[in-house]
Each structure stands twice: as structure tokens, then as C-alpha cells.
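>> received
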Amino acid sequence: MKRQEIIKQYVESLKEDNELDYIFPILLERMGYRVLSTPRQSKGQSQYGRDVIAIKKIKGVSTLFLFELKGFGSRDITDRTLNEKDGLIESLRASKYTPYEDVSVPNLCNFPRYYVFVHNGLIDANALPTFNGFIKTEFPNGNFEEWDISVLTTYFSEYLFDETLLADDESYRLFKKILVLLDGEGNTFKDISSLIDIQLSKIGTTKKENKRILLNMFATLRLIAHMIHFYSIECGNLLPAKYCIDTIILKTWAWILRTKKEKKTIIINHFNCLIGLQIQIYEEYINKILSVVQFPKGLFCFEPTDSEYMFYPLRCYDFLSDLVYFYFLTEFFYNVSKQEHRNRIEILKNIIENNNACTMPLLDTHSITIQIVFLYMYKYAENQEDMNSLGKYLIYTVINLIKRYEKQKMWPEMYGNRMALAKSLYVKDDDYHCESSLLLMVVFELLSYLNLPKFYSFLKQKVEESEVNLQVAYPITNEFDIEQLLFEKRLNNELAVQTNIKLPETIEDFQNNYVKKYKSIEYRSDKAGYYFLRVLAHKYYETDLFPDFLGRAYCK
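>> returned
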């Protein structure tokens, strides 16, 4: 399929309410317009026929452009769509006769106006005489244009796709492959990661970047995220969209740290646009699952096979980590009220109580989920009932760890190897390793934090019986730029592991004598306000959380 045909098919498929509304402002920015308002900024309000408002200099004169967008079901103009309520004629008249002001642009109301009707279809031959007559009467000064599917295909090709996303053969190949296999069974989305790497490699790492190349890069990343989001919705599976935006956020932030641009306003403004899209995608993904997950066994497959014994816990831990990350993420962008925090705690409690697999860790990397859930619930606990729920979460985790060990002689798989876990459904596979554990040490720390001596002793007895090697991982900060690498890959050789940790006899001894000698990293991400990205990096790459994540007193 030729590139021009791909672009045309994509533009034709755009829906006004979500697709065309979002992608069109990106096109305008690439064409040199300054966008003042978009439909997403005015949802629920009367737009008076103005979907997108922008300014641009025409022959040296600053001009106000008012764009009216019609897409999907209304993309083709007929006699009906011309005259219906909120149809083309009504919208253009509203746009023409409604004043517009913006305090950021002095004297805007006196700018000359230009009106553009944008639709990803065509005008029906029967409607053309009426349309032409209306335009001639209402816009006699020639300050009107129509951008139909042909014009849009040309603009999208010239300013976005050919210059950005489809600018090289490898990106073109990967892009087609991604769209074809997006919802394929067993898709690991590695092609998405490769496509993003190619785009980031085009800008390099120089301190003085070309503004045009910079704009191309961010426009391309937004396009990739947006298009995969669109096709994820089409196939009813938002996981590819979530994976894509997570990958873009992490790799872009790694590039920002690597080039030391976290204080550069123009870079941060572009990056915040990506964060805004991440919030949108996560919100759709989270809300879709929340509609079922708070019911009893909401994440359980009710046509189960034996393998559901493993799939159910994996599903629960994945969703819990996504949910809590979403909470941290939105707290960065919005003023979350005390009542909203209360609602979020109740949601977490309901999910855990209704899905018993939320307390059945099967992989050692599930320690990441356990810690971020613990941190969030502890941070916003308001009463003893909240603390009791947190205690139950930890106690049931201990009980399920012990039950599995007693029944199958298996602790959580050390390396997070899901294939080895799958092979060990009935009998422990040779590739399944649980002779060492970071997770168990985390659980002991949390037990001491909530002061649960009975379960400390109970778990300690089984751990010593099994002779499992308790460990704690420390980042090697004197040899590596740990923060930058954290956003690029899963850390292995960059971590030093303390092994053969001997547990104090009682929980009191643990609380009084256990110390981790670790100096906290001064994160540039935290100084820039993006502390939540570290949570994303740990859950995405499955790098074990650093010893001071929960900020407990025995980290010194």
C-alpha cells in the first residue's frame, strides 16, 4: 500500500468527537499556527461554531483563524447535514457573528478573521449549489476556505507523516506492521518500542537542538500515541495504547535527562502534552476495568482452565500497579481533594477485598506492586479502619505465601520469569528459581512497620525451614548514572545485592537493630516535579524498588 493511500485512509477514519479534534491541532502547529483553543478545552460548553481557534500572520498581518470541524458521520456534506441543527450552515453563522477574546493576545477582537471548514469527506453534488450560494452570501470578502479529504491528505502528508512518522523506510515498515498486528495474540509490542527509538534517535543528544527537528520529534511521538490509541479503541483493547504511551513517556524522559534539558521550558511544555495524553489513555483504561473489578472476583475468568490459578493473580497485580500509578500521575496534574483521596482508598480496599488473588504474589517482582499499594494506602489512611484494611492486605499476603510454599515448595519466582511460572503450574520447572528472594525481605520490613509479631514469627519459621536466601538490592551510584538508566532499561548489572540476610529473632529486634546502609539519590526528576515517573519506570521495566522507597527509618 502506498504511503499516500495509508494517510488518506487514516484521515478518512477520523471521528470528530475524539480523533479529528485531537489530531487537527497538531497539524496546525506544524503548519505554523498558534493554537489558542481546541474542542477538548471546551467540552460541555457552547463552541459557537468554532472548533479550533488559532492565529497566524498572513502577509505580515496577524489573522484570527476559526476552524469548524466535521468528521466521521458528518464528514460528507449533503442537503441534510447543511441545514440540520448544529449543521454546517448554523455552525458557520455562529462562528461569524460571535465575538472572541483571549487575554493572552491583546486586541485580538480587532484581528482580521478567516474561516475554514474542515471535513474528512466530500461535498455531495446535490448540496454543492446551496453550499456555494451560502458561502458567497456570508463570506463575500473571500475570507473562507474548505479543506476536504484531498486537501487534508496533502497537508497531513506534507507537514506530519512524510516529514515525521513516515520519513524513513524503517519507520514506514514498522508503522504498517504495528497497525496490522496491534491486537494479535501474544503481541509483546516490541515494534512500538523500536518505532519510538527511531524517532528519538533523529534528534540526537546535542545541547543546541534544531527547533524544527524538535517540533517534528514531539509531533511524531504524539501521532504514534494517538494513532495506536485510536486503533486500540477500535479493537476494544486498550493495552497497546497504555504500553505505547508508557514507552513514549519513559524513553522521552530518559532523552531529556541524558541531554540535561529538564529545566528547558519549551521541552517541558512539549513533554506535558505527552503526559496529558497519558492521563487520558489511563483514565479510559482504568475506568473500563473498574466497571467490573470491584465486584466479587471481578478480574477472574469465569470460563477457567487450570492456568487461571496463575493468570488471575498476574492480572490483579498488573492492574493494581497501573491503578496506583494513575493515582500518583493525576496528583501531579490536578488538585486532588481530600474526598477524592477518600474515594480512591475505598476503591483500593474494595478491589483487594473482592479479588483474593491481589494477595497471592507469584513473582518476586510483585514486591513492586506490594510496596506502591502499601505506600499509597498508608499515606492517605484516615482512621483505624483504613489501617486494619492495610494490615489485612499484608496478613493475607503472608498467609498465601506460606500456603503456596507448604503445598508446592515454591516461593515467588526470583527473576519475574512468567514463562517459567507457566511451566510450573503443577510441578516446579527447572527454569523456575526461588532459592533467593527480595520480595520476602520486603514483606518482613512491612510486617515490622505495622508491628505484626505473630506473622513475623510465622513467616520467619517457614523461611528458615526452606533456607531461602533473603536479599536486598542496592543501586551502584558511584559507577552509573542510575537515574538516567532507570528510565531506559531494567537494571541488573547496575544493582549490588546483599545476600544471606539473617533475620533478627523477634520483630522487636528487627525494629531496633535492622539497618540498611543506603544514601538516597537526589533525583533530578523529583526536582522537576516528575517524582511519579520513577514509579512508572520501576513497574514498566520491573526493576526492584530501591531500599528507601517507603522512606522507613532503618534506611540510613
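>> The radius of gyration is 28 Å.
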